Structures are given as C-alpha cells and as structure tokens.
C-alpha cells in the first residue's frame, strides 16, 4: 500500500485499495442524514476480477492507495492466448492474458501503443487509444445505388472482430473504430 486516501477525496475513476485488492471508484455519493454521522455510499469495480461492490464508508474513513503504475507500451504479438507488449523506453516485454484484456483484444494490431496498468509489478489492464484504424478483410460488396439511409451490414476486420458498417464499405477499406464501444466511426481510406 502506497499511502492512504480520505473519503472526502473520493472522485469517479480514482483507484483505491480495499482489503488488499485494487478497485476503481465507479460512483460515489456523500450522504448527510438528519441523525447520525455522514457517510459515503460507493460503487467500486475490482481491477483484478471486474466484480462490482457497493460498500459504505463513514465520513473521514481512510482507505489504501494501491501501488499502481501505468507504462506506455507497444503491442507486439499474440501467442497461446497471451498478448505481448514492449516498453518503448527500455525494451522490456510483458504479457497480458486474453481474459484480463477482455474486449480490448478485438482492437489490437501490431505496433499499437497502449497504457498498461501494473499492480505490484503485475500487468492487470490496458487502456487503448480512443480509436484505431483497422482494415476490412471480409464483407459483402457495396452495390452502386444501394444508399438506404442508416442501413448496416456486418464486416470482419483484420483482428477478427465483426462490426456493423454502412452499405458502401468494401473489403480492403480502412475504418476508424471506437475502442470504447466497438462501433464504426468513419472510413479512413478506400480499397485500391
């Protein structure tokens, strides 16, 4: 534990340590009842398991500050369900398993930079850029004049991820994909 945090300092997204496990504050609410002392109602998500807890802290309680470090690293390759990253400053490599990466693995392609979160020296999560450019490897061809407003079709990207795209998208097009919700944003380049 690197220090302590008072409940009055709670902010959304803040990392805290409860019972030796790192958590991120999802929501919090300071409550001042008519009788009794004030308290803080929280919703916290485990950075290790993803489970969500809703503990209540008395006003003035102190919680631990986890030993969390973020490093900018570059994605290298996937092997046997493990995804390997390299620190661009000292060339050290680390890996993160597919279950820890979750949906983020759908947007990883070689040489993409990401922020890797370490807890007590162990990689526990990844923060990708808000969008990545990925190539369409498989989709039905766009037909000239097929311009129904809002119509979508599935397209498979180079990472194997399937996203719904407008009808004018073709194989070989490069698309900008939002890594936060996995949705198509825009076409960056056309095939050819």
Automatic annotation (TrEMBL):
UniProt-annotated location(s): Cytoplasm
Segments forming domain Translation elongation factor P/YeiP central: 70-124
Domain Elongation factor P C-terminal residue range list: 132-187
Pfam family, one: EFP_N
GO molecular function: translation elongation factor activity
Keywords: Cytoplasm, Elongation factor, Protein biosynthesis
InterPro entries on file: Elong-fact-P_C, NA-bd_OB-fold, Rib_uL2_dom2, Transl_elong_fac_P/YeiP, Transl_elong_KOW-like, Transl_elong_P/YeiP_cen, Transl_elong_P/YeiP_CS, Transl_elongation_fac_P
Transmembrane segment boundaries: none
Pathway(s) the chain acts in: Protein biosynthesis; polypeptide chain elongation
Keyword Protein biosynthesis: yes
CDD domains: S1_EF-P_repeat_1, S1_EF-P_repeat_2
Function, in words: Involved in peptide bond synthesis. Stimulates efficient translation and peptide-bond synthesis on native or reconstituted 70S ribosomes in vitro. Probably functions indirectly by altering the affinity of the ribosome for aminoacyl-tRNA, thus increasing their reactivity as acceptors for peptidyl transferase.
Similarity comment: family membership: Belongs to the elongation factor P family.
Name of the protein: Elongation factor P
């Amino acid at each position: 534990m690197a220090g302590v945090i008072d409940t009055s300092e709670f902010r959304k997204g803040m990392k805290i340590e409860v019972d030796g496990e790192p958590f991120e504050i999802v929501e919090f609410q300071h409550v001042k009842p008519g009788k009794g002392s004030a308290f803080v109602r929280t919703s916290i998500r485990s950075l290790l398991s993803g489970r969500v807890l809703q503990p209540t802290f008395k006003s003035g309680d102190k919680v631990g500050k986890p030993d969390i470090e973020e490093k900018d690293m570059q994605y290298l390759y996937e092997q046997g369900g493990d995804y390997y990253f390299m620190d661009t400053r000292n060339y050290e490599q680390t890996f993160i398993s597919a279950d820890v990466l979750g949906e983020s693995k759908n947007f990883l392609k070689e040489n993409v930079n990401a922020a890797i979160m370490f807890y007590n020296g162990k990689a526990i999560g990844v923060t990708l850029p808000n969008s990545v450019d990925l190539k369409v490897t498989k989709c039905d061809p766009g037909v000239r004049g097929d311009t129904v407003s809002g119509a979508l079709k599935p397209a498979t990207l180079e990472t194997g991820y399937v996203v719904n795209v407008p009808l004018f998208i073709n194989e070989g097009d490069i698309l900008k994909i939002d890594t936060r919700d996995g949705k198509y944003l825009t076409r960056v380049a056309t095939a050819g």
